[in-house]
Amino acid sequence: MNILVIKSSVFSDGGNSSALVNAKVEALKAAHPQATIVERDLGANPIPHLDGERVGAFFTPVEKRTAEQQQVDDFSMALIEELKAADQVVVGVPMYNFGIPSQLKSWIDHVARAGITFRYTENGPQGLIADKPVTVLAARGGLYAGTENDTVTPYIKLFFSFVGITSVEFVFAEGLNMGDETKAKAMDEAKAAIAQ
């Protein structure tokens, strides 16, 4: 059992989404003591945002790449291999200003690559990564799930399905900035859902 863990809170382990991730990982380790855990803390170790040079490296033929361009491609491919090798994926996703953290967007930008993790066909895009369970632990300051203001849930589902992964489950902890009592109740309920 290989488990890929992605934390995207700017507060690293201090974030609410990371606390939920840690609870999920502990539950998985209890069920699979021999599991291998690969963790990417994107707050502690941010992935560079895409720029012209990084995109240029992706599109430069291998035989024409500079050493620096090859390093960029190697880094992207390492992230892709981690996702491919995982039997399960756990992702912590806070909502910042109605969207995902830019750190997580950078990870997505290095993983979603035409011809590698998806391809375009006459029948539309086709994902190239085998389906696997993904648990998304979503932390929000307000109440967004099921409303038109929740841009995060459809975006995360779209990204994973685009690369071939459709078994995506969400656990929400909402209202975390609406008072201590509301926060405690939301976190307790989310952790109970994780335990099940």
UniProtKB/TrEMBL annotation:
It catalyses: N,N-dimethyl-1,4-phenylenediamine + anthranilate + 2 NAD(+) = 2-(4-dimethylaminophenyl)diazenylbenzoate + 2 NADH + 2 H(+); 2 a quinone + NADH + H(+) = 2 a 1,4-benzosemiquinone + NAD(+). It comes from the Bacteria. The keyword Chaperone does not apply. FMN binds at residues 9, 95-98. GO terms for molecular function: electron transfer activity; FMN binding; oxidoreductase activity, acting on NAD(P)H as acceptor; oxidoreductase activity, acting on NAD(P)H, quinone or similar compound as acceptor. Belongs to the azoreductase type 1 family. PANTHER family: FMN-DEPENDENT NADH-AZOREDUCTASE 1, FMN-DEPENDENT NADH:QUINONE OXIDOREDUCTASE. This is FMN dependent NADH:quinone oxidoreductase. It comes from Alcanivorax nanhaiticus.
